[in-house]
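Dear colleague,

Following up on Tuesday's group meeting, I ran the structure prediction for the four-component complex that the binding team flagged. I've pasted the input sequences exactly as they went in, so you can double-check that nothing got truncated or mislabelled along the way. The structure tokens for the whole assembly follow below. Feel free to forward this to whoever is handling the docking comparison.

Inputs:
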Amino acid sequence: MSYDILKQHLKKHVDLSTADLDLISSYFKPASLKKKEFLLTQGSICKMEGFVLDGCFRVFTFDKKGNENTLYFATKDWWLMDIDSFMNQTPSDLNIQALEDSKVLLIDRQDKMALYELLPIVEKLFRIIFQKGLVSWQRRLVRNHSFTSKERYFHFIQTYPDISSKLMDKQIASYLGISHEFLSKIKKNKK
Amino acid sequence: MSYDILKQHLKKHVDLSTADLDLISSYFKPASLKKKEFLLTQGSICKMEGFVLDGCFRVFTFDKKGNENTLYFATKDWWLMDIDSFMNQTPSDLNIQALEDSKVLLIDRQDKMALYELLPIVEKLFRIIFQKGLVSWQRRLVRNHSFTSKERYFHFIQTYPDISSKLMDKQIASYLGISHEFLSKIKKNKK
DNA sequence: TTCCCCAGTTGAACTTGTTCAACTCTTTTG
DNA sequence: CAAAAGAGTTGAACAAGTTCAACTGGGGAA
């Protein structure tokens, strides 16, 4: 049953009863996306928060110069959303695109709010999820400042071997914040 | 009364009753730090979460090469902590230092946990605080990738004129992730 | 007050990373 | 299957940013 992946994920953060897990899960609806399909596009409002069951997504933004900037990749067990747009119903800065045929569980804003109201432990759950997320964004910033591009590249492929093997070098480069030509030269000089 | 600053801050995120605000505030103890004094040093365990009432702090880390890397500056209304170290009682990667004589409100881990238990709305409060924090870390990463150093510098001083005016250029450079010599050249060429 | 330390500036040489253009090799797509 | 589009590589010229060293000036401590 596909909801088991979600339930296992939630239990990692907070101790939840079976009844609670069932209730939370019941608010999420399964959906499938084909390769290259978008769950969210820049400028539109983020209506859904997603949890990846299978497949792979890229969360990215186009900057003023038209360059793509990848915030993160999401495979099984990762969340997908533009938090700001989802919570405040403002136009999103982000694009969320499936890199391969994928399965997700979705919850809309009203249901998420209802869930927060209905089950206070969900507040704790997401307090902890966001708290952990914040820590990893801080660490990523420090790495960006203190590592060279080469070090960042090898850190990435060593930390996420399963994700990086699915990706094109172009996509990895936009995650690392370097040009794909330069990534090609990094790979040539030390591999 | 110094607790008013905290109360006003909390009310911005969640609608709290006077009784709740009083109760939450009662868990925080005032403390003063002299210029250059540390609230936390790398390697030690973060025992206190802080809220700045007055003054200015720098949150930074030393990387392997011994370079300082500034995560953020905190003036009035900002939180101070190493979330990871505070929650999991693991050795901290961060240093938190007062840049001038400062006043803070502190809460220790046990009291924070007790507060979460006692008043479920505190979970919502910090869920929202962390959620907003996450959004700003994401935006900072995108700026780091899509802006040049010059653009990042002017964005910083325009966004935080009150903070940046208190800082030495060396500290701003370590926040931007560039050498202080190069910052000096940026300021010369376009001011 | 004096001394010294430290922040900031500047220049020169160097390293890192970008841009553009040409080429190859797969992968889609009609 | 053929054509076209996209992913990766390479080189050369360039731009961005670092490093090191020397110098300047101001502020704090004795």
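The interface with chain B takes residues 61, 63-65, 67, 69, 71, 83-84, 87, 93, 116, 120, 123-124, 126-127, 130-131, 133-135, 137-138, 140-142, 144-146, 177 of chain A (CB under 8 Å).

Cheers,
M.
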